[in-house]
Design brief:
mainly alpha, 320 residues
Length: 320
């Protein structure tokens, strides 16, 4: 998630007080690595279309995280492009999805969004020497800890909402209806939402960011579906997007953001998308015994690993 050029930062900050709202709007798009205002607006609209609670908590998390970054005097370039807001967005959605809409959830969303900004700085300190970025790790850490710890507190825990993947038929046959639902759900599940029309709106938003962006997102979704089916994953989970959303993020990250635009990059990105699909099952099994959530860990671990290998792989190169 690149920082802004100095002249762009100056232009954005000259629009005060609208700069805060513009930075927040970009935060929604930065979940998919995109700083486009149009992409951010489309994704925000898609989240509200998914339900008012999802839209509300996504908005709250993003606004609080962006505001906290200003208060903490974080680099203005990263704030302007929404890099400080996207983890708060995902944290808000994760908390309302896991804990329900209760007063405590609002408080935890605010606290979690602030913690995401701090963890973003912490992880950047460790990762920058290796040319890696925190990506969605702050969201995974904050939300994961809060959700696992929630049942210990009576004022926080009100019983978990039913999970999308709580029951499956175990059937590995797949139909056309399953396929097209999976294609769009893979995109919406990046935001923990199962809805084909939400995924469609988000894909339109990604198309507004550029042709390469939407093509890699679509290709990642397809690779996720194929890989999950070849491995024999239950059809219900493939159709719900559980196995493919990490593949979408890996494809965009490697194919568009972090690596040069070459044929080798395309192959590498699709390989990463397939790896993240298999890793999704492994991490889900790892987290399940203690009530943890996979979230976007497969995307993070896959992307970090493949990017760290690039300096010793001469056919591959990072973007400038």
């Amino acid at each position: 998630m690149p920082l802004a050029e100095p002249d762009l930062v100056r232009r954005l900050e000259s629009r005060q007080p609208s700069a805060y709202l513009l930075a927040s709007l970009r935060g929604f798009g930065q979940v998919d690595f995109q700083a486009s205002l149009f992409t951010g607006a489309a994704i925000l609209a898609a989240l509200w279309a998914a339900g008012w609670e999802t839209g509300l908590f996504a908005t709250l998390g993003t606004l609080v995280a962006t505001g906290a970054a200003y208060v903490l005097a974080v680099d203005r370039g990263s704030i302007a492009l929404g890099v400080q807001g996207f983890a708060g967005c995902l944290t808000g959605i994760a908390l309302v999805s896991s804990l329900g809409n209760h007063p405590a959830t609002y408080v935890l969303t605010v606290v979690g969004a602030v913690l995401c900004v701090i963890l973003m700085a912490t992880l950047a300190t460790f990762l920058t020497p290796y040319r890696l970025t925190p990506m969605t790790a702050p969201f995974c850490l904050v939300s994961g800890v809060m959700v696992v710890g929630a049942p210990s507190f009576d004022r926080v825990w009100h019983g978990a909402p039913a999970a999308v993947s709580s029951t499956t038929s175990g059937d590995t046959g797949i139909t056309w209806n399953d396929l097209w639902h999976a294609f769009f759900n893979n995109v919406s599940q990046v935001f923990l939402v199962e809805s084909w029309y939400v995924g469609l709106i988000m894909l339109v938003g990604l198309a507004l960011a550029g042709l390469r962006v939407v093509l890699y997102a679509a290709a990642g979704s397809i690779v996720g579906i194929i890989t999950a089916w070849l491995l024999g994953a239950p059809t219900d989970l493939i159709a719900n997007g559980i196995y493919g959303y990490n593949a979408v993020l890996v494809a965009i990250g490697l194919g568009v953001v972090f690596m040069a635009n070459t044929v080798w990059t395309a192959v590498y990105a699709m390989f990463g998308a397939a790896v993240s699909t298999g890793l999704t099952a492994a991490l889900t099994s790892f987290f399940k015994p203690f009530g943890g959530h996979t979230f976007t860990w497969p995307f993070i671990l896959t992307t970090w690993t493949l990017l760290a290998a690039v300096p010793l792989l001469p056919r591959l190169r990072r973007s400038d």
